Amino acid sequence: MIPQLIRTAKALKQARRMQQEFMLMWALDQARHAESRQQQRLNQYLDQFSDPSDHNWKIFYRGSVLDD
C-alpha cells in the first residue's frame, strides 16, 4: 500500500512539473505573438503616415465623445 502511494505521489509531482513547464512555454509563446501583432499594427500606422499624398485625417483620431 505505501509503495503504491509513493509511486502515485511521484507521478503527480511529475505531472504538476510538466503542467507548469507547459504553461510557461504557452505564456512565452503568447507574449511573442502579442509582440508580433503590436509590431504589425505599428507598421500599418507608419505606412499610413508615410504617404504624403494621403490626406485622410481619420488616422489621427481613435474616436471620442466629441466626434458625435
Q: What would you say about this model in short?
A:
The protein is built from 1 helix and no strands. With 68 residues, the chain is an all-alpha fold.
Topology:
Elements: H1 2-49
Q: How many individual β-strands?
A: 0
Question: Looking at the chains present, what oligomeric state does this protein adopt?
Answer: single chain
Fraction of residues in H or I helices: over 70%
Q: What value does the average pLDDT take?
A: 84
Low-confidence stretches: none
Q: Determine the N-to-C terminus distance.
A: 73 Å
Largest sheet: none
Structural class: mainly alpha
How would you characterize the overall build of this protein?
71% of the residues lie in helices and 0% in strands. It is mostly helical. It is rod-shaped and about 80 Å long. The termini are far apart.
Key descriptive features of the protein:
68 residues, mainly alpha, 71% helix, rod-shaped
